[in-house]
Structures are given as structure tokens and as C-alpha cells.
Amino acid sequence: MPTPGEALQKWLNTLAARIINGELISKEEARSLTEISAQENILLLCEAADKIRQACCGNTVDLCSIVNIKSGNCSENCSFCAQSVHHPGKDSPIYGLKSKEEILAQAKAAAAAGAKRFCLVSQGRGIKYNSPKSSEFEEIIATVSEIIAQTQIKPCCALGEVTPEQAQALKEAGVTRYNHNLETSENHYPNIVTTHSWRDRVETVKNIKAAGIQACTGGIIGMGESWSDRIDLAFALRELEVESVPINLLNPRKDTPLGEQSKLDPWEALKAIAIFRFILPQQILRYAGGREAIMGELQSWGLKAGINAMLIGHYLTTLGQPPEQDQAMLASLGLEGGEAPIPGEYSATHASRNT
């Protein structure tokens, strides 16, 4: 008679095999995965998620870097963010739009460190609330053009909400991926932000995708949300057919409303990562903010629990570990930094090789 652990492993492997063969799991099945709790069972969950990652995405880990091109005095009241004018962090820098030359220099440094993409991130609700021909938007467009002309790195943007016209302008400038996170479930969102709605976020994601730009859209784990909220977020991302999913792990920032939030347990983070891979088998799942602070010694395990992408270098208001350390971690796991395939790309490539 099989032990409970053997029975769980058999069920997980069967579920993983179905997913690898092209099925999508239901919400009920995803909720069943959240009931796994003991550490040895979470490891079984991670093992099964890693099989899905290998089969659907391969062994290339997508590497990107970000730059905060405008910081502080943000009009929005996101409870996790130290840049908000509603609760400014004492250690959060405040400055206007960086010069083209400064951003370009950082793009070149990111490329030298191994990043394949470089995301220009700006505070604020978004350029949607300015003229499409506003000076800042035009400066950013010009900077994107310079990055394309002078480096091999691919520029991405995260500028807040955009209209269809602005999305099209970004597409024409050469932006192929745009970051705009949903942060959490629609149900939990009002507990985190009240100056704009979850549906506002969704509208921008749809505008971006309609313009032919890939959506880099994920959220933050550890803001007091329930497992049901996490499942709802993952299914919303699946419904929107986003290509890249940043998984941020809340590293509470002093002076913010979530500053006293208990830090996420790294085993809970591993479990969440693995479940996201079960729900989003072909998406790029990206280790983002908080991985060093939250995961600690378990950081590398995330790359064997479904993760196939990382932000390298520093974050918006916090420091990351040296890129050399990330490259060494990848090598120790038999993984290679590069540009990971988007949904459908990896399976299509392998299918063509087998015909």
C-alpha cells in the first residue's frame, strides 16, 4: 500500500503529465494544490512544477534588469510602495526624469552584466494622464530609440497606464514588452490601493497586447492575501494571456502601510511559485523584487520550483545581489541565462525539430 507521500507524488506527476500534454488545470485542482503544507510535500510539489518548466520552457532563464527613471512623489497610494506621496519612505530617493545619457549608460551596464532586456520604470499613475505628445513621453521614446541603436539589449517600459494610441507609439518605437502588474486579486486589490482600480490595470494590459506588445504582468505575494486571492490572480493572468509574469515577494518597506507586515515564509513562497507554474505552464515566471530578502538560503530552490526568469541587479528602491552571484547560481543548477521563450514558442520549436 502506498504511503501518503507516494500517493501525493503519483497525483502530482499525473497532473503534471496532463499539463505537459497541453491541458490546463481547473481552479478546483489549483485550490487542491494549496492544501499541501508539510515541507517534504512542498518539495514534491516543486519537483512536479520543475518537470512542467523543463518540458514547456526549457532550461534558459530569462535575464532582465530595470532602472528607476523617475522616482518619488507618486500620486498613487499603493500600500507596499515607498515612492507614494501618501506615505513617502524616508530612504526612498526623489528625482525627476533621468537624462537619456544616464539611462543609456545603465542599459549598457545591464547588457554587460548579462541582461537581455532592460526595463525603463517610472513612478505615477501613468502617461495616460498626460498628452500623448508630452515632453516626458517623447524623451522616453527617444531614449528607447538610442538603446536600440547603441546596444544589443531589448528595451521594455513600465510607465503606468497607457491609452491605445500611446501603446501604439511605444510599439512603433521598438518596445516589445511592457510591465504593468495586477499586484493581487481583484477582490483583495481595494485593501492595497484605492486611488485607482484593478480594472484600470487590466485595461492597460489589454491596450498593450492589442498594440502587439508582450505583457509582463504579475503581482506581489505576501500582502496579507489569501490562497484564494493568489489563485484568482494566476487565473486572471492566464485569461489575459500575458507572456511574462513577475513574482514579487513582499519585502516590507518602513513607513509604508505594509511596513509592519510579517515577512513571507520562504516555504510558502516556494509553494506559491510552484502552483503558479501549474496554472501558467508556458509563461515566463520571473523572480522579481524580494527574492534575496525573503528566500535566503532557499533562493536557488525557486529555480527548481517553476521559475525561469530573474531580475538581475538592483530594484526600484532596494538593492539586489551582484549579477555575478546570479550567474554562478544558474551555472550551479545547470541553467543558462539568456532570453526565455514566450508561450507556445518552446513547444513549437521542439515540435518542428521532431518532424
Question: What report would you give on this structure?
Answer:
The chain has 355 residues and is α/β, with parallel strands linked by helices. It has a single domain (54-353), classed as Aldolase class I (TIM Barrel), CATH 3.20.20. Helix content is 41%, strand content 13%. It contains twelve helices and ten strands. It has helices at 4-20, 27-33, 39-57, 100-112, 135-150, 164-173, 198-210, 227-240, 266-279, 291-295, 323-332, 345-353; strands spanning 60-70, 117-122, 154-158, 177-179, 214-216, 219-221, 244-249, 284-287, 309-311, 336-338. Strands 1, 2, 3, 6, 7, 8, 9 and 10 form an eight-stranded parallel beta sheet that branches. It has a two-stranded parallel ribbon with strand order 4-5. Strand 6 (219-221), helix 8 (227-240) and strand 7 (244-249) form a beta-alpha-beta unit. Helix 1 (4-20) packs parallel to helix 3 (39-57) and helix 8 runs parallel beside helix 9. The radius of gyration is 20 Å and the shape is globular. The termini are far apart. The mean pLDDT is 91.
Summary of the model, kept short:
The protein is an alpha/beta fold. The chain has helices at 4-20, 27-33, 39-57, 100-112, 135-150, 164-173, 198-210, 227-240, 266-279, 291-295, 323-332, 345-353, and strands at 60-70, 117-122, 154-158, 177-179, 214-216, 219-221, 244-249, 284-287, 309-311, 336-338.
CATH topology: TIM Barrel
Low-confidence stretches: none
How many extended strands? 10
What is the second-level CATH architecture? Alpha-Beta Barrel
Cα-atom radius of gyration: 20 Å
* Helicity level: 40-55%
- Put simply, the count of helices is 12
